[in-house]
Amino acid sequence: MAHFVPHTDDDFARMLADLGLSSPGELFECIPQALRLASGLDLAPGMSEPDVAAEMSRLARRNRAAGELVCFAGGGAYDHDVPAVTRALAGRSEFVTAYTPYQAEVAQGVLEALFEYQTLVSRLAGLPVANASVYDGATAAVEAVNVALAATGRKTVWVSAGLNPRWRQALATLTAGRGTQIVDVPLVEGRTAWERAAAAHLATGAAGSQDGRGGHPAALVAVSPNYLGCTDPLGPARTAATGLGALLVAVFDPIAAGLLRTPGEQGADVAVAEGQPLGMPMAFGGPYLGMFAVASEHTRRLPGRLVGRTVDPAGRTAYVTTLRAREQDIRRERASSNICTNQTLVAIGAMVQMAWLGTRGLRELALRCARATRYARDALIALPGVNPLVEAPVVREFALQLPLPADLVIERMADEGFLAGIPVEAGDCRGLLVAVTEKRTRAEIDAYVAAMEKVVS
Amino acid sequence: MSGPSHRAAPGGRASSAPLLGHDEEPTIFDFSVPGRRSASFRTTGVPEWRADELVPPEELRPEPPELAEISERDLVAHMTRLAHRQYSVDLGAYPLGSCTMKYNPKVCDEAAALPGLCYVHPATPAAYVQGWLELLWDLTEALCRITGMDAATLQPPAGAAGELTGLLIMRAWHQGEGRSPTKVLIPDSAHGTNPASVSLAGYTTVSIPSDERGLVSPSVLREHLDSDVAGIMLTNPNTLGLFEEDIAELAAAVHDKGGLLYYDGANLNAILGVTRPGDMGFDIVHLNLHKTFAVPHGGGGPGAGPVAVTRALADLLPGPVPKRLDDGSFTWQSPSRSIGRVHGWHGNALALARAWAYILCNGADGLRKVSEAAVLNANWLLAQLRGTYAIPYDRPAMHEVVVSTHGAPGMAHELRALDVGKRLLEKGFHAPTVYFPLVVQEALMIEPTETESPETVAALASALLEIAKESPETVAGAPRTTPIGRADEARAARSLVPTWDAISPG
Questions:
Q1: Using one digit for the tens of pLDDT, what is the confidence trace for B494-504?
Q2: For the domain bounded by A86-351, which CATH number is listed?
Q3: Which regions of chain A carry the CATH code 3.40.640.10?
Q4: Which of A37, B192, B198, B317 is most enclosed, with most CB atoms within 10 A?
Q5: Predicted ipTM?
Q6: Which chain B residues are within 8 Å of A1, Cβ to Cβ?
Q7: Model's pTM, two decimal places?
Q8: CB-CB under 8 Å, B67 with A362
Q9: How far are the Cα atoms of A79, B145, B150, B324, B439 from residue B140, in angstroms, in the given order?
């Protein structure tokens, strides 16, 4: 088996003797005999390194990865190109094997990288303060709602039906403990009907009750581009939020941010995003990256770590985690977030990716995604029986109505060498959600369209 | 006490200090030069529509957000210099109590980098990801066997996320029984995430004082138990590094009142193959795969915090979970009364793959040896510190020890724990956890882990003993050899500069 415990038998014997013990079992005499395992764990014996590598390779070969099924699936995980430099730098063991930077004097590497990450997230979001990351887009949305619940003392949130349905489920699960009510605001033509929802709410005179379902919402959770791929400008949500005294939480996309106006510019109080498209492989769903930014007045409700710039006694620039009194280890039961471990390494990778892309590179990447998406969508909706599920503008992803169930289409398209997309529901409509990144060539898109024509005919 | 058998301590001071350089490292924004670029893109042949042909004008931003304009070479130099200003497990011993900073095997890194694992979309139908499902199922089974539980979810992406998941399961279970208790008991030595998670789950925390042994006493527990108690969260061994030896009695008392027992797996590294939370009477367990199962900590994440439960609670787990069918194939299944998802996809999958590779490497025999060496190292270190540092609860330790400078018998001048930690940085070690647990004044919580050799543990002990003999002035001025001295934390909080754009000119 592989050996990660350096102690020789002699070491064990000598150290035990120093403690007046004669066998390792005596180290555990503080554990009552009745609780001790008589025959060890019911697991196989340890394996050698080459044997482990072989077993892991066997498992990996049982997956049809993106190299084998050309990926047109999105829904919160996207097949973008990742440059070698991102992998190389985020893979440096000084970052990989460090812990949370509690000792700033020997953690300036991680801290400065996070300061740079926070700056870049702040610029993408158009808001002045960004944290050092939360777990993923879904939990970022949950933490954003928690900020709003704490800021307003209310118990209801309104959520665009354009929110990723898995995030919507996580939001319901993780806020249930405190009795949070979630109200879904429907999409009309791919865009959220905020004005109608607000008008209906105010007309019922429900404003009086602050507790139950009828009370004013703590937050409106708006999403652009939304789960169906449509842009959904925040203006109506901002107006409705202002009228209701609610916070506007905006879910944005870090790649589309190269083309679209920022959440901050459109009046968002909190902006969150799934950061996976910034240099993380799809990785079967994780580790991903929850990007999180707020307007200044919510700084002290920010979940997770925040890095700040200061000086040391010699006047040199220094970075530390700051406003620590917000955090669970100090605030304990009064904390509005329990986050401790976050996604620092992924954030460092995203920082490298953003720096590598640069100002114009991000624009070009967003544009390339939008072009490939337009090209694929135009060709697909020209096929007989294939129609757009919604008509609103899209930038990387779109939903189709097909003459066959999406599951069946996905299965048949896999035989043609494609991961065709994700089954999607929008109101009463069912269809296929298709994502097209800058990585897809015209030849791949043409082949996909030809395969789709064959599959649906 | 026998000395080290060799002069060199590979994970100790010989190799770990000083870190390079005392110059400031500019930021990528300071390096930016307009027009300089690194990015390059694939040749695709896709038509080159203009932005205003693709995005409605009112939604299109005229200029892209300003990121950085830096050459790839300068970016690499910058990040490499940052790496040199960063302490890490790969560099040297990292005895940060409660964090289990053990060596992260490279074979696990390589396994998690396999293209067949990395480049898989999480919504790929089960038929095409049998390898991933098998891996997740295998890991689930192994974690159940290690903890003595019956079923598990791998979704929670960190320990605290596991805590909240477990507490929501606790809540759902009580609701299913037609009860709605409001309180969760937590010892005063608990991690801060515990009470924070309790609040998020909609419960009220009731803190239980530790007794003179540093343990939860059954009689004190009974004073706090009533039908309004949903359960108790315990870390065992606890944050003082002590095994809660009355656990069976505590479990029976909680169960008698209809409550559940939650096991915080932060300290599982002490008991692998020795005892199991399930055998102690726990109902819900979270594990920190980034502690016990050697997933690297990544500067503060990503981690993974699976939650395992007894059969009675299995239907409540977040879903979907991997399921093995009779023909040996795998599929996803949602538990019948699931509390719902707690992650956007399936959890931190690559962290789960690393943990599985680690479990394969060690097996039953290796995991037991992990705990033996971890507990041996901690006790051997404690024996060397006895007589110099105070030991507030001097009982047989498990994988970590808590000592104190307060009333330290072998210290000429009483030093502050913070200063000892800072001075240790100068001596080429990472500092221990300081001022935790809260029940000990001037606490130093030290966890050597099993992967540090006796030579390194001895070097760490020597460094701590040397510091105890030093003058308060020497110690309070530390660290001087690190890339920066003690940062002005008050200024950081008072004049918040969270981004480069917030730096005042001049």
A1: 999 999 999 98
A2: 3.40.640.10
A3: 86-351
A4: B198
A5: 0.97
A6: 361-363, 365-366
A7: 0.97
A8: yes
A9: 28, 9, 9, 11, 35
